[in-house]
Every structure is written in C-alpha cells, then in structure tokens.
Design a protein that fits this description.
There is one protein chain. The protein has no helices and 65 strands. Helix content is 0%, strand content 54%. The chain has a 6-stranded mixed β-sheet, with no helix packed on it. Strands 6-13-12-8-10 form a 5-stranded mixed β-sheet, with no helix packed on it. It has a 5-stranded mixed β-sheet with strand order 15-22-21-17-19, with no helix packed on it. A hairpin with a 2-residue loop joins strand 49 (573-581) and strand 50.
Amino acid sequence: MYLISVRPQIGRSILAEHSFLSSNHSDNRIRSTKSKPKSKGANPSNPKKRKSGNLAILASLAISVSFLGTVGCGGVVYSGKSSSAEGSATVAVTPSSVDFGTVTVGESANQKLTVANTGSGSVEITALTPTNGVFTVNGQGTLPVNLAAGTSLSFNVHFAPKDTASSSGQLNIMTGSSSAAATSVTLLGKGAASSAPVAASLSGLNCTVPSVTGAGTDNCTVTLSSAAPQNGVVVDLSSSGSAISVPSSVTVASGSTSASFTANVSAVTTSQTVTLTAKQGTVSKSTSIKVNSASTSTVSMPSVTALSCGTDSFTGSGTTHCAVTLSSAAAVGGVGVTVQSSSTAVTVPGSVVVAAGASTASFTADVAAVGTAQTATITASTDSSSRSFALQLKASNSALSLSASSLAFGNVAVGTAVTKSLTVTASGTVAVTIKSDSVTGNGFSVSGGNLPVTLNPGQAAVLTIHYAPKAASSATGQLTIASSASTATVSLSGTGTTATPAVSAISCGSTSITGELADSCTVNLSGSAPSGGISVALKSSSSAVTVPGSVTVPATASSATFTADVASVSTAQTVTLTATTGSASKTVSLKLTGGAATLSVNATSIAFGSTALNNPTSQSLKLTASGSVSVTVNAVTITGTGFSVSGEKFPLTLNAGQSVNLDLQFEPTTAGAATGQLTITSNSSSNPTITVSLTGTGTSHQVKLNWDAPTSDTDSIAGYNVYRAVGGSTGYQKLNSKPNTSTTYTDTSVQSGQTYDYVVKTVDTSGNESDPSNTTTATIP
C-alpha cells in the first residue's frame, strides 16, 4: 500500500508523510500565503472570487518520508556546509615541481620539499598525499601540524620506479584552514632497467633546517643517482660564507646512495643567506640556509619533557622506534636533541632534530643479542634538560632441534635409492647459523639446506638423506650437523636386498562405517620397491565395497594408497579387503552398519503476508538429508496463483547431512487472499511425500491524505474538497462528491506505475472554496 499523510496549517510548514509497503517517492516543499477564498465549484486553475469575508486556505506543507514496508524503499540525505573566519595564511611549497629524472628499477631517489606559511595567520597541514604509488613521503613527523606565520615544515619525497615506464603524479598538500587552499606539487620520474649498471652520480643536496637563528648545527645529506661502487664515491663540499663551515668532502659508502654531514653555524650580527655546494666530477648541487641574527629575536629553548620507545624488553636482537617530546613547539631552525645509549648492545643516532613548528621527533634504536641479562638506558638531552628510557635486555640462547634422532630406511632393493627428510629448526631465542653437514656409512648421502644458512628463531631448514645400497648387506652411518649453537648427530641404518619386497600390511582410515563413505586405505611393503615399482592386487568380498583391481607402489617407496568406495546397506555386514603380492597377502575387515535415507524440511507452512500487487516477495525452504545415508529428491511441484519455486534441478541426490535451499516467490496480480501448496517427493524411508502450505494476500495501492483544520478563519468551515491530477498535468479532478467533513481522505482508485498530484481546498457553509493548498505528489510503484 502507498500511503501519504498531508497536514497543512495556517502560517507555518506542516508535515506530510509518505508511508508505503513498496514504492518510489518524491519530497516536495512548497510554501503559499493566505489569500481570498474562491467560489463554490471553482476549478483550481480558474476559481471564482468570493464577494466578501475571509476563508483561511490550507497552509504550505513540507513532505518527509517514513518507510513502513520492506521492499523498494528509498532514503533521505541531508548535506550542508559551514565556514569560519581565520587569519590570513599563505602556503608556499619549494620546489613547486620535482623531476627525479631516470632512476634504476629497484632503487629510489629522493628530494627535500619545504612547505612555508608566508602569511600572517596560522595554518594547519593535515595531509601529504601522493596520487601515484611510486612516489612516497617521509620525514614530515606526525600530522596534522600547525604552522605559525613565518614557520615551515620540511619533508622528503621518494621516487621508487617499478618498471621502465615514465611516471607522473601530484603530491597533494592539504590544509585545515579555510583561508589556505590545498596545494599540489607536480612529480615526474622515469624507471631504467637494472640490467645495465648505472654510474653513480650526484643527484641532490639538502639540509634539515632551512633557517637558523644564532649558533647551531644543521644535518645535511648528499644523494647519488644510484648505489656507490666498491670504493665509494667522494663528494666535495664548500660554503659561500664564513657563517657556515662544512667538511671539505664526504664519502658515500659502497652500496649506499647517500651520506650525511654536519654544517656548523656561527652566530652573526646581520642576517644573511649562505649557499652550500656539493660537487662530484662535473656535477654540482647546492642548497641555501638562512642565518638569522640572534639579536633580532629572543627564542626560548624548549626542554625535553618525555622520551619513549615502542618496546621496553628484548630477548635477542631487534629494533624499536623511539620518540622525544619537547615542552613546546620548536622555533625556526628547529631544536637539536642529543641521544646516547649506556650500552654497546643498543645503538642510537648521536642526535635528532625536532623540526620547526613540531614538538616531537622519532629515531630508531637497534638492539643486539646479549649473553647475560642487563639494562640499557637511552638518554635524550638538550643543554637544559634530559629524559631517559630503560630497555631490559634478556639473556638469549641459541639452540637447534631435529625432527628425528635416527633414520631407518629398512629393506631397500640394490640399485635403487630411497630418501627421507630431516627438519632442522632454530628453537632458541636468537638466530642460529648451520655451517655444514656431513655423512658417513656405505650408501648414505645428504643434500639440500643450501648451507651455510642462518635461521631466525622458529625458522627451519629441510635436509634430504639418501640411501642407495650397492650390495645385499646391512649398513649403518651418521649424519653430522655443525652450527653456531652446537653439533648435532643423527644415526642412519638400512639393509640392501636383492629379494623382491612383499605386501606386509593393509589398513583403512575407517573400519566401522554407517551409510556411504569414500574410505582411504594404504598397502605397505616389507621394503622399498625396486625400479619399475611393485603392483599389489586388491579384492573386496562384497559388492557393497568397491576397490580398484590393483595399486602400484612406485620405485623407492614402501607404501601406496587407494580409495575403497562404501555404499549404504540395509543390513549390517562385514566386508574383507585383501592385498596380494605373489604368494603373500594381507587383509583388513570393514564393519558396515545399515542406514536409512531420510529427508526433512525446516518448515511445514510459509506465510508471505500482505504483498503489493505485481511486487514479488521471496522466502526460502531448506531441504536436509537428515538420515545416515544419501537421499534422492525426485521432484518438487507447486500449486496456487502467484506462487513459484526455483533454486535446484530435480532429481537431486543429497549426501547424509547435506542441505539445499529452495527459493519460493509470491507475486499477486489481484487483491485478496491466496493459498497454495509445495509438494516434495523423495525416496525418504519416512514421509516420502512432504507438503508445505503457502499463504499470502495481494494488497492494492492507496494514497491516504490528512491535514490540520485552519485555526484563523472568520467563517464557518463546512468541509474540504480534494483534487487530483495526473502528474505533470493541470487537469485536476475533484475526488469527493460532497465536502469531506474530516481532515483525512483515502484515494483507492490509483493505478500502478502512475504519478499523481494532490491539492486540498477549504469549503465554507456557503459553498465557497479557498485557494488550493500546496501540491504533494505520489508515485505508485
């Protein structure tokens, strides 16, 4: 049913509700003002004027939507925007575009970027987001970060190509300030094949702090286009001003792509800009540092208030990320914090710089394994303050465990080789290096492991031991494994034989079976099969159990598997399976218990309830083979107008415990109650014919309108007239034959798929009508 509730009142918006079981809807908001009434019988498009008096019209109405049904319902979304006033802030990014050039696939290049607030108000940097996955960002610290006027944030952008194609993207720099728009930096780069060595050349020079006030230091880095060769790469350094001194050169170590150095800044009386230059061969790169006079501003040095690390206890080696926190944000130039460790087992950087505008900085502590338990203390300090963090280092032990202490190969045919596996596991708390393995004894050998190999705690390596006898005799040997933990040994034994091995056993996974089963069975030989393998004949004493005629044990193996297919039986019986090689045979007995096919359903009746015409609704019925053997569903039929079934094809066999769902549907085309029946036939031992009753009611669409009576009219109100037009037209027709005295009206003559517009007029005792209310629209599904 489609239901609309319209409630107009004088002088304000009134709620109109659309309630329906299945429909579309529209949400109209129309406002009208009070006007003079119109004469009796007036058409909404051409009303006659009343001679005197005032008759209140129905006020404007607002439509909201509520859903009473279960099918085809829509939703309402509200959206809006807000604004706030802030100081004037301007975000500038240096550089505004970055071209990384050609970078070898598998390597990376980086470029320092600086975001500066050049305005007079503060701005919040909320995110740094590359649009292409080959570009990444780090060194920005924790976001969001607030930049005061005149401050900046520096970070690194990396390019790591995945193939030789050209790459492009943008770095979106997002702000939370309404006065500073999001800014983007164009990123370009091209990947180069790694097969041809690329000569390492200077590709970049950057420093952590772009502006320093007073004396201090700045950490700077030179970057190469690729990893340095065996002897490293020497990069010459120079400074354009005496205010900043740098070493004459810095060496990028073999295999590295960058090296760091310290720029020492002296106090100056006049602010100046100093250029640092790095040169390697004919290539040079430069960067600028602004040195501010200490007399131009008074900066209060923040103190260290906290030092924390992610992990405070270690067994063996590892790493932990630590963070130092200042009492306030670092001023322009940043704050250098000295970092120290009380133990050589814990390695930390000598210092870390808290960037301008930030109050935290992070670093990594590398922990080595120790033989005795100890406490290592990490200390972070400035000139006026320090904080410490303790790491508990527990004694570590190295241990190696083996999956077996001895390996017996049994009888092996001369001229064939048999293998067995041995798993070696690092079972201690630190890594173990397996240095070598060796084997003694005639016919024994070892392979695998890719030694030497280092196993982290919990990791394992697999060794393969071979036995290939050359004569018919017994042999013993020993496998020796040397490692950084200990030396382990495994005893080996085997017998070479020229006799053909015979069947020694037959076994099955299940020997007591109810109903159907695919049982997995195994035949074993007295020794390893020679070249070409050995065929083992198989036989079953009953047609209830089917086995293959034979199974082949492959060369060097001593067993083979096969499947025994067990059918359900009506009476209990014992079946014998026999495996034979030559004159030797072995048997296994299977006890079969009788079972019954049973079919059950999860409901004996299904009620679809009230359903709008031509709108299908669905329910499901579960069929289950609830007996101990399979059951066959032969057919499913359905009767009753509007009812249908789908989901499976019949006949259908369900194994014991298996279930399927049938999809039932009710789609009424006429109003009124409907009944039907679902019939299921099967070979079930009980109730082979199952019936399920079906009920449902087809419901016509209706539109119900209701409204509030006017409260400001000076004339008597006799009732109301309701008008309807096909949606989009102006041909309104009055629905009621006489004024409706109540404030509700139900339209039962609507048609599916049609849209209608409705208006309501007030009628006085003289038969005069008011202007129409605002229009409300109903769409019938």
